[in-house]
Design a protein that fits this description.
The structure is a single chain. The protein contains 13 helices and 9 strands. It is α/β, with parallel strands linked by helices. The strands form 2 sheets. The protein has a 7-stranded parallel beta sheet with strand order 1-8-9-5-4-2-3, with helices on both faces. A two-stranded antiparallel ribbon has the order 6-7. The longest helix is centred in the first third of the chain and has 26 residues. The N and C termini lie far apart (73 Å).
């Protein structure tokens, strides 16, 4: 008989409450902190070239973050968000995808974009809002996007990308594409209504989307213990009928394998998966944040010992795929490339002021044209020393 409630009915004759922590979700890990595999673990099927490419992207992300936070402190850019301590999550998960797969990110996934081939000069064009910025200089820094690399432009409002990812994946399914969508977000974003709407829609429509939650313990300054009482984020997906997996987010090999198998599952039977990556944000939430106000140095030091870049580097060295000299040369080359790209971006002009009303409408309506003319009349907007900063002098 059809069950209209869509629930499994098992009869009992005494009151029995299901405990809120009745579901135990294990954490998938392959690498120990010393870079060796656990005795009963097996490394993913990746070759030396693939493994070193992942390391290159992780290292590039860390060095880029280091340089650009310093640039923000020097007043060269207005704002920056690091992914310190979370590099393995973005890079290793992106490495497990195919180029045709769509990525919708939050704002700590620059490693995924770098791994897809986004060059440093385009990174700098976005951060410095140059005339070559793919976003035409209209976004805050660290809000990247690339149509060519199937990386949806990042939005500032929290969690809006989650239901959008469900929609993208639904379109992929309807079109019969051999592609999936991966959506990144933090555990703080999982407190938004968009999280629940997006997951429920994905479950009902059976869309091929990976919901990748970075549970780094803090929603800016709010610890997870003050956000929710349940067992992390993974348990919520089970309630929506979604397959889920918890993984050590500081273990690049485990993240890669978890994402690879999730993608394979989707292609075999179209359905969503949630991956909760357990991690820690070693840096501040952003360049506007001071974490010393809400957590201790001792706590940070405990997590620093589980650094994902260092752990993965040790594994590569144990494989004989990376020497200390090679690692030093790679780091030096990346630092030079980042610095050169930054210097070039600083010399570039800003977008023309007239471009501000382009791209939304085929023909800008009269009201936008009027507003643009009013903007031009503002003092110091199109003359004097501030002109180049605003593009008005051009």
């Amino acid at each position: 008989m059809t069950n209209p409630n869509n629930a499994t009915i098992t009869l009992v004759h005494r009151v029995r409450f299901v405990d809120g922590h009745g579901l135990t979700i294990p954490t998938f890990r392959l690498l120990k902190d010393d870079g060796h595999l656990y005795a009963d673990a097996s490394a993913p099927d990746i070759n030396k070239e693939q493994a070193l490419a992942m390391y290159h992207s992780m290292l590039a992300t860390r060095l880029l973050d280091e340089r650009m936070l310093a640039a923000q402190r020097q007043g060269r850019i207005s704002f920056y968000l690091q992914s310190l301590g979370e590099e393995a999550q973005a890079v290793a998960s992106a490495a497990a995808l195919d180029p045709q797969d769509m990525i919708l990110a939050q704002y700590r996934e620059q490693g995924a974009l770098l791994h897809r081939g986004f060059p440093f000069d385009q990174v700098m064009d976005q951060l410095f809002a140059t005339e070559d910025d793919l976003g035409r200089g209209r976004q805050m820094p660290v809000h990247y996007g690339s149509h060519a690399l199937n990386f949806m432009t990042i939005s500032s409002p929290l969690a809006t990308q989650i239901p959008q990812a469900t929609g993208v994946a639904y379109a992929q399914r309807l079109a019969g594409e051999q592609a999936i969508t991966l959506c990144y977000f933090g555990e703080g974003a999982a407190s938004e209504g968009d999280f629940h709407a997006g997951l429920n829609m994905a479950a009902v429509l059976k869309t091929p989307v990976i919901f990748f939650c970075r549970n780094n313990g803090y929603a800016i300054s709010t610890p997870a213990s003050e956000q929710f009482v349940g067992d992390g984020i993974a348990s919520r997906a089970v309630g929506y009928g979604i397959r889920t997996l918890r993984v050590d987010g500081a273990d690049a090999l485990a993240v890669y394998e978890a994402t690879r198998q999730a993608r394979q599952l989707m292609l075999e039977a179209s359905q969503p998966v949630l991956i909760e990556a357990m991690s820690y944000r070693l840096g501040a939430h952003s360049s506007s944040d001071d974490p010393s106000g809400y957590r201790s140095k001792a706590e940070e030091e405990r997590w620093r010992k589980r650094d994902p870049v260092g752990r993965y580097r040790l594994w590569l060295q144990h494989q004989g795929w990376l020497s200390e000299d090679e690692d030093r040369r790679r780091s030096d080359a990346l630092r030079r490339d980042i610095l050169e790209a930054m210097k070039q971006a600083e010399k570039k002009p800003k977008p023309l002021l007239e471009s501000l009303i382009e791209d939304v409408y085929y023909r800008p309506p009269a009201r936008l044209k009027r507003q643009l003319e009013q903007l031009k009349q503002q003092p110091d907007m199109h003359a004097g020393p501030e002109a180049d900063k605003l593009g008005g002098a051009r």
